[in-house]
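Data availability (excerpt). The following record was deposited with the supplementary files.
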Amino acid sequence: MKNIMMQPQADPFIVPVCHDEITVIYQDDSFLLINKPTGLLSLSGKHPRNKDSVHYRLVQDFPTATLVHRLDFGTSGIMLVALSKEVNGNLTRQFQARSVKKTYKALLYGEMADNSGVIDFPIAKDKDNFPLQKICYRDGKEAVTRYRVIEKIAGNCTKVEFTPSSGRTHQLRIHSREIGHPILGCDLYGSDEAFVMAERLMLHATTLEFFHPATGEIIQGVSNCPF
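Predicted structure:
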């Protein structure tokens, strides 16, 4: 007779309560442009104490709202939200075709030597270290990020603008680490020095440009960077 012992389950990660509100930047019959605060999930987690999220809050007032894309828990800034299944399909196809243009602002650890450049490292899931991603030339998917230095700040950090042409999970965070300048406040990919230099992840989605799903006109949404 085998004596099978139950292994203790790891404690689930419970996100801190986010007291900041979502701001609606623009709305019409097709979609919303919103400003997501840092410290808020895009979608609710499986644990009941992780119910609060962008989607959970929005459907209270917009029952048909669906997220076209996501931002990391710590990332703040502009998000696009569809208000119908048809609009969701249209906008999703735009993201898949990479016709949606996005920019981010970030504070990076250290002083960058070059004022602009391209980061090109393929990204894959790290199956042994969920939810981390890894650089992998064998199984990774193409991931390209362009950057431009905005300001070199006293205190050993650099403010940059990122323009990713792909949208891989944690792309900006892992690309920053790979060039030796992790994002301040990053708990997953930052060095100890970079992590303690900020009380939040210093990454903000600033602009989003796409085609209106009903009219075809170019829509440019802007969310001012808070740092």
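Summary of structural features: The chain has a mean pLDDT of 94.
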